[in-house]
Write a structure and sequence with these properties.
The chain has helices at 12-15, 42-49, 121-124, 127-139, 157-168, 180-189, 202-209, 223-233, 255-259, 275-290, 307-316; strands spanning 2-5, 17-20, 30-40, 66-74, 86-89, 104-108, 112-114, 148-151, 172-176, 193-195, 215-220, 234-242, 264-267, 298-303, 322-326. It is α/β, with parallel strands linked by helices and 327 residues long. It folds into 2 domains: 2-126 and 296-326, Alpha-Beta Complex (Quinone Oxidoreductase, Chain A, domain 1); 134-271, NAD(P)-binding Rossmann-like Domain (Rossmann fold), CATH 3.40.50.720. The termini are close together.
């Protein structure tokens, strides 16, 4: 099978290779998926750069956790009726070496969710990390109906889905975005107000948009960088749910200020969500896809041969929407 892989850490153009590898066979409880697409996420480029030092201990790594395709074979214990099923896959390269940047992947059948017929494989590749992370951020701490929710970085991969999950569940949503096109995307996704996080004192703009009402739940892309502003706008007994802090990877917490606000701080990583949360996310994603209730942003659709360029695009951090490879 055709595949992309790396066997040393380093810059994309120096370490990523494309060639032929042996086609895998499904083991017990596994399915073999003929992949049509593979998505590049920030965690994928970080792994290639060396964020998981032990990753290469077993040999070359086929990158990427998310993708979509069709089940071609099943292992022992898997219903043969799944053969021919259109699926989106997630966690393909979590805790293991062989991901979705290839023509085929084998993985636990739980990690291959049914992709409705009305949904393209390009969209299917964007569901694992972005849509599931967003779902967890919105719903991990209870219903949001009637609550106020702030989504920072609302035009990003996760933020765009978070706005939709929250708005469709009955929340009043405010988002942050700086560029006009991104602000429009947030509004189209369901944000009732959008403010620019590039402006000083943007927390005051959020409160102006809510008529002075503090925010019940903050879903935050840049925890360390945004914390000071977030504490100015989050309500007492509110929640800060964060899935990133790239600008300040080791933030300092104003502990007593946060304690006397009775705040909940939740850190979300999609790979280690409880299985029950993954199941609920998959069910809700399937229902939303079948009923065309989700908007998707795909910034680039490229051939597998351009994987190095795709990694560089994601690494630059400026792209809004998924970067998807056709396998």
């Amino acid at each position: 099978m055709k595949a992309a892989w790396f066997q040393t850490f380093g810059p994309a153009r120096e370490v990523l290779q494309i060639g032929e590898m042996a086609r895998p066979s499904p083991g017990p409880g596994e399915v073999l998926v003929r992949l049509e697409t593979s998505a590049v996420n920030p965690s994928d480029v970080k792994k290639r750069a060396g964020s998981a030092p032990n990753l290469l201990d077993g040999g070359p790594v086929i990158p990427h956790s998310d993708g979509a395709g069709t089940i071609e074979a099943v292992g022992n214990g898997v219903d043969a009726g799944r053969i021919g099923e259109r699926v989106w896959v997630y966690q393909a390269q979590h805790g293991r070496r062989l991901g979705t940047a290839a023509e085929f992947v084998t993985l636990d059948q739980r990690r291959a969710a049914v992709l409705p017929d009305n949904t393209g494989f390009d969209v299917g590749a964007c569901l694992g990390i972005p849509a599931m992370t967003a779902h967890r951020c919105v719903f991990a701490d209870g219903p949001v109906d009637g609550r106020s929710v702030l989504v920072t970085g609302g035009a990003g991969r996760v933020g765009h889905y978070a706005i939709q999950w929250a708005a469709q569940a009955g929340a009043s949503v405010v988002a942050t975005a700086s560029k006009e096109a991104d602000r429009d995307a947030c509004a189209a996704a369901g944000a009732q107000a959008v403010v620019s996080h590039r402006e000083a004192g943007w927390a005051a703009q959020v409160l102006e948009a809510t008529g002075g009402r503090k925010i019940d739940r903050v879903i935050d892309l840049e925890f360390g960088q945004n914390l000071g502003q977030v504490l100015d706008l989050v309500s007492v007994s509110g929640a800060i749910v964060t899935y990133g802090s790239a600008a300040e990877p080791e933030p300092v917490l104003p502990f007593y200020r946060m304690m006397f606000m009775d705040l909940l701080l939740r850190l979300v990583i999609v790979y280690d969500m409880p299985e029950s949360a993954k199941t609920r996310a998959i069910e809700d994603i399937h229902d939303a896809l079948e009923n065309n209730r989700l908007q998707h942003r795909i910034a680039h659709l490229m051939p597998l041969d351009d994987i190095a360029m795709a990694h560089e695009i994601v690494e630059q951090g400026q792209v809004r929407g998924g970067v998807v490879l056709k396998t």
